[in-house]
Amino acid sequence: MSNTVKQSPAVIVRHLRRQYGKRAIIDDLDLQIESGEFVALLGESGCGKTTLVRVLAGLDEVDGGSIDSTGEIAVVFQEHRLMPWLSLEANVALGMNEKTGRLLAHNALGEVGLAGRENDWPRNLSGGQAQRVALARALVREPKLLLLDEPFAALDALTRIKMHVLVKDLVARHQPGVLLVTHDVDEAISLADRILVMRNGHLAASYFVAAETEHGRASLLRENLLQELSVDIYTNESRT
Prior knowledge:
This protein is of the alpha/beta class. Helix content is about 35%, strand content about 25%. It is built from 8 helices and 11 strands. The radius of gyration is 18 Å and the shape is globular. The N and C termini lie far apart (about 55 Å).
């Protein structure tokens, strides 16, 4: 008999609803993300992706349904949101006990490839380096759920590839459940275990990446996802 202890899900969302005025941005949404599972969320602009992230992070109100998570939730946004008057170490340890926070921040900066830069300032960082610090700040608290809201969108192509490798390594090491919001289909396929497509406040489709790629259907998966997003696969342009 196996001695493996099954971990509780990172988050369970049931019948979630969020509306602004009379308009429902998220309507009767169900979602479960397991510990260590990497989920990517695709969808056209305005479909509710960022609203979902904000609700899960506790930054926005809920108008119905429930969100159950047993641990810390951390967020990395497209903008790094570092405090320019604080050192990198202080940014990562923000809100933590001073003594233990410094040690944890030191280790976290080392994990993201910025060892020795603890006393440096955000103004001296490139965009990719700033996002590394933002990742360190999120992971230093060992979150059960890590929310990534287009954190690589403003980076150049080479830096994005390096960040993809780093994020996959960090997630494998720390095992949070991850929800990545992205507009990039190839990024979703490269990083995720499961890809969800959001449409008009609902989760309209779900794809397991390994099941598709192991059967040589990676290109078909890409085509299906582009079609889900109303992109003409022959012109690569949106039909909306």
